[in-house]
Amino acid sequence: MSGIPPFERFYDAHKGEVLAFLRRRAGRDRADDLFQETFLRALHAYGRLEHGEHLRAWVLTIAGNAVVDAARRERPTAELSVEPAGEDERPALEELAPLTDDLPPKERAAVVLRYGYDLDYDTIGAALGSNEQAARQAASAGVRRLRREKEQR
Amino acid sequence: MTAVPTVLDERFRAAAAASGELDVAYDVLDDTPVGRLLVGVSDRGLCRVGFDPEPEAELERLARQFGPRILRAPKALDRVRTELDEYFAGHRHAFDLELDLRATPDFHRRVLEELNRVEYGHTTTYGTLAAQVGAPRAARAVGTVMNRNPLPIVLPCHRVVGANGSLTGYGGGLDRKEWLLRLEGALL
Questions:
Q1: What is the dihedral of CA B32, B34, B35, B40, to 10 degrees?
Q2: What is the mean predicted confidence (pLDDT) over B75-98?
Q3: Is A1 a member of any domain?
Q4: N or C terminus: fewer CB in 10 A for chain A?
């Protein structure tokens, strides 16, 4: 568990940015509830983290998924335009991110966290609010979709 | 950087404490009669009382001992705060708290359990404690155990003095030891 900061430090370092992100994505009112949900999800997964790298990308992904899930709860059939990580908060992986723009949110998040940040599926599952198996499936579905799109071009 | 409103911050901390997912919930008590104290509880009980806390070092240490899910969550410390207040006011003579000593080595734990029998207002000596745990020549080792006591005040290492009655030493400084013994009427 080397390099994983005490949760207090992690929370303190990212809470402002997470709240700003949620306000942009979900509006001021809903951001308050999503703020708590995001950090409770992060807390739930935190004990299983294997290293302390890319925690910012990780928590923004959790926040993005909380937004998507909330939108689904409110309008189950609506087309979703929300993405896991903000356009203006593009994770460091410059090459991968634009390629994955057209993927559905969960697949995109799984692909970026797996291949961009080298996180294990257990951790990704936690970020997506699901589990290891679902994360693995989302990543492989995302990769298959990217291959198909590439072939069609 | 967006400032997180206090109400939102406190709500999350309370929810985190209620979730049962914290390895340690802690708080810093700023104005006790013996100065600043950091207090921490795990799901098993009180796991830390620290004088003059340097939060950075304390949190790292708690994370190493109990796991990384460490959060300041004052709500989880309500009972500890109340019992300490009562003790400092002279109204409480024994703490009624579960203690989590799982991070404490075996010999230390045996000594601390023996220490816990020393009653309010009484003192004992390092040598006596050593004899009580079956290691009569280990007075010096008992001194080390007292110095590393993870739960000072609650586990009353201030009640341990030298064979000649001198205060000897205290992890939190001799002034505090003296204050605590005076509070308990063990020093005039």
A1: -70
A2: 97
A3: no
A4: C
Q: Biggest alpha carbon distance in chain A? A: 47
Residue B98 lies in a domain: no
Q: Write the CATH number for A33.
A: 1.20.140
Q: Is residue B34 part of a domain?
A: yes
**Is B93 contained in some domain?**
no
Q: What's the total number of domains in chain B?
A: 2
Q: Are B68 and A35 an interchain contact pair (Cβ–Cβ within 8 Å)?
A: no
Catalytic residue among B157, B161, B180, B183: B157
The strand pair at B70-72 and B124-125 is best described as: unpaired
Alpha helices in B30-185 (DSSP H): 55-66, 78-88, 106-115, 126-132, 139-147, 174-183
Is B47 annotated as catalytic?
no
Name the pTM for this structure: 0.80
Out of B1, B16, B72, the one facing A16 most closely (by C-beta) is B1
Q: How many angstroms separate the CA of residue A7 from the nearest CA in chain B?
A: 5
Q: Which domain holds residue B145?
A: 106-183
> Per the structure, how many domains does chain A have?
1
B47 with B150: CB under 8 angstroms? yes
Do B110 and B72 share a structural domain?
no
Select the residue of A15, A23, A47 nearest B69 (Cβ to Cβ). A47
| pLDDT tens sequence across B111-167 | 999 999 999 999 999 999 999 999 999 999 999 999 999 999 999 999 999 998 899
Which residue in chain B is spatially nearest to A24 when comparing CA positions?
A: B2
Residue B132 lies in a domain: yes
